[in-house]
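Why do we bother with a discrete structure alphabet at all? Because it lets us treat a fold like text: something you can write down, compare, and reason about line by line. To make this less abstract, here is a complete entry for NADH-quinone oxidoreductase subunit H. Read it the way you would read a sentence in a foreign language you are learning: slowly, and without expecting to understand everything at once.
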Amino acid sequence: MFFASFLTTVFWLSFKILGFMLALVLGVAYLTLAERKVLAYMQLRVGPTQVGPFGLLQPIADGIKLLHKELVLPNDADKILFVFAPILTFSLSLAAWAVIPFGPDWVFADINVGVLYVLAISSLGVYGIIIAGWSSNSKYAFLGALRSAAQMISYEVSIGLVIVCVVLCAGSLNLKEIVLAQNDQWFVVKLFPLAVIFFISSLAETNRTPFDLPEAEAELVSGYNVEYSSFSYALFYLGEYANMILMSAMNSILFFGGWLPPFGWPWLTNIPPIVWFLGKICFFLFLFLWVRATLPRYRYDQLMRLGWKIFLPLSLAGIVIIAAFIVWDAQ
């Protein structure tokens, strides 16, 4: 009896995880279509329209084309690590979603240290890029990997310090409790400068414009993934866009109330929580695309100066001010 109950639990959990992975991959596929459409309209074009109605089948056609390409393994590459790197990057981009709450009762693992888990998983992502750059045995790939590692470590410091401020305000490391702590007022109201720092750091953490220096085409051809093709390149591609969606979810949870509606009006609370949460994720994804369409790429010295000389002091000052206010309020 116990064994049957255990098998049933494992089956349903596996079914839910596979369903979520399929939904996430579809979300990534149509995020690429949305990116092409948004960029096209901002450049007074119309974007893909030929494959399916309104171009809706374009991501599927792109995926089939990519998977039919030849898988090339460079002669001088470390074959095992070369294949392992994109698998690691894609796996980590999925693992972080285990603690993301989509609603008050919809989360795979409601652990008390959800914030630390997400921070740890996102920090491990740099290993996939470093391994890819080193194992490719290419100067361009190695330089791109070094750039990415320095960039991600620099901005993770700011992200970590901003999260400490949010945790001080919420009094918990649990992501659900952080959302519920914003029931009266979203944290973006009282932590607006830190919310801006977190969003800009999210752009750097995901190697997106204007911080896409690890993939700078003019300088490094394509950076750490220059030697990759076919399925291995697709895994890097899926991992990068899945991280974009993840950072959009974190922006929503930490500063915009997660699944909570913006005001306490009764007709707003009738809308399902997941609709609010997905709507906020879409808003931040649009900001990612808007920034790409409007801003030029930073120089590397500008990128480092912004992270270490501006964001780091501001986020440290934020911790001191918030901690002092909490102590003063408790007296």
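What the structure line is telling us, in plain words: The chain has a mean pLDDT of 87. The chain is about 70% helix and 0% strand.
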